[in-house]
Amino acid sequence: MDLKQAALDYHQFPKPGKLSVESSKPCATQEDLSLAYTPGVAEPVREINRDPANAYKYTNKGNLVAVITDGTAVLGLGNMGALASKPVMEGKAILFKRFADIDVFDIEITAPSVEAFIETVVNIAPTFGGINLEDIAAPHCFRIEKELRQRLDIPVFHDDQHGTAVIVAAALSNALEIQGKTLASAKIVFLGAGAAGCSCARLLKLMGATNITMVDKSGVLNTARSDLHDNNRHLAVAPTAAKSLADVMPNADVFVGVSAANALAPELLLLMAPNPVVFALANPDPEIQPSLAHSVRDDILMATGRSDFPNQVNNALCFPYLFRGALDAKAKQITDEMQIAAALALAALARQPVPAEVLKAYHLTSLSFGKDYIIPKPFDTRLLKVVSGAVADAARLQQAK
Questions:
Q1: CATH H superfamily, domain 159-401
Q2: pTM of the model
Q3: In the annotation, is 10 catalytic?
């Protein structure tokens, strides 16, 4: 109850919400007003009409991202509706601003159909330099992102899919190194084959994973199933006698949970290979509590989505810096290469000595690459330069081809 009241007070006082709009230009005199509005404002209007690229020169378009949702998959709460999702979208906005100095308008859309949602986003897109889709349920999130990427000339990114994938890829590459394994040889089992699970598995395959088995509510994804769709069919294994999670856990090197609380039975951990990696990423409650997992096996490397446990797999390590790099490079899309660049930069940063300012922020005396530190901390100020720079470099390299 203390946390509940503290959260409600935080959002209500001293004024409701987490965002406000501030002027970036003076407007204190008659002269200021004549420049900010009529007649002076007509001059940039004419310049943008003459060349649309001038919008990046005379307006905030180049540093403005829309965080857009329909509220159908809000955190781990499910379909809460567009209006109820607004606190989350405002929260996303302050992370963009805090970590990458990117301005955000949060936009919650109630649309009668997927087509209407897509058209709404297309129609408002000229305002923005990028679109961050958020908390949109599968499978329609796949179609929404695909069509918007095809129709718009600004970066479109579904963070629940690709942001999660970047962080998982970065953390897993380091976790496997610590456990003496490689991505190419590891047997990886996913529990959860929604937007996040499919995108994580897809990116891991692009980065070299060769043995991935997906499990959802209906069991193992295999090509004999009739309920597969375009976004998970390529992840299905050949027809197999293995039907359940228990059937595929023997000798698994990695478990990645993007499903639901307490979905991983502790006895299944005993079936895994020596030195396993367990990513229990369901929020707010993981597939298995770290204390329980470590009580079953002492050779586990564990990560969750929570900040109160070691190795938090947190999208805040990705989306601000990915968009910062994309905006700085004036990229038209966020590509696979840009996502891989972000993942590799994150992984490499975790292997570097941790600055004193990071230790101070987390009330620590020491922290170094190892079982309890496989991914950088969100308040590590090096992230902006390292990750955004890697993304921008990848974007410019593709533009030069």
A1: NAD(P)-binding Rossmann-like Domain (3.40.50.720)
A2: 0.91
A3: no
